[in-house]
Amino acid sequence: MKFLIVHAHPEPASFCAAMCCGAAEALRADGHEVEISDLYAQRFDPVGDRRDFTSVKDSGFFKYQAEQLHAVAHDGFAADVAAEQRKLLWSDFVIFQFPLWWFSVPAIMKGWFDRVLAMGFAYGGGRWFENGPLAPRRALIAMTAGAPRERYLEGNIFGGIERVLYPLEVGVLNLAGLAAHEPFIAWAATRIGHEARQDYLKAYIKRLRGIAHEAPQTMHRVADHPDPYHGTQPLK
Fold first, then answer.
1. Residue 53 carries which DSSP code?
2. Lower CB count within 10 Å: N or C terminus of the chain?
3. How many domains does the chain have?
4. Concatenated DSSP letters of 82-134
5. pLDDT in tens, 113-152
6. What pairs with residue 119 in β-bridges?
7. Which pTM value belongs to this model?
8. What whole-number distance in Å separates Cα of residue 17 and Cα of residue 131?
């Protein structure tokens, strides 16, 4: 299989980075192909604006989605965006590797979603969820969390981790057609000792060595959720 790891951590010596490197080594050892998008090392720009495009639909009024659609039709994406899109199309499986910050992904990864998962490329025109352009690719969230697991149980201070992950698993991955696997989470990674972190790393590598044969979670499907909005509005 072809794996793309999208990694977002600013410290190369972090445990998150160790997970990324360990994943790549293990997958390659098992005969898989691996590409890594190390967003901080690449100095990936998270800001989406006119610099994303080499073509222009409307020079007088900037509408991001309209320009994305135009770029899809005219091969008009900036080089860094186009490079990430090529990696996505090359891949069979995408691993999103990051630390949980403010109940979400780091800003640089959110910018990657905004710029790379462009309208017309990753969704749009009735293509989303089970009909999303990136289907039948699969994806895994592999993250570190500063807090212990108990804080993310339903009824406890942070609420269920499922609430935190819903916008990412459904609103990003599923919407684009990516079937999400059960996430791998290293809890309280900055608080536990070296041996405990190594245990997490071993468990992560063991999980990845069987991931090709693991079934993903149930996909959020249009067929199961009627959409009350049936009209269409062209982008202007």
1. B
2. C
3. 1
4. HHHHHHHHH-SEEEEEEE-BTTB--HHHHHHHHHHS-BTTTBBTTB-GGG-TT
5. 999 999 999 999 989 999 999 999 999 999 999 998 999 9
6. 123
7. 0.93
8. 33
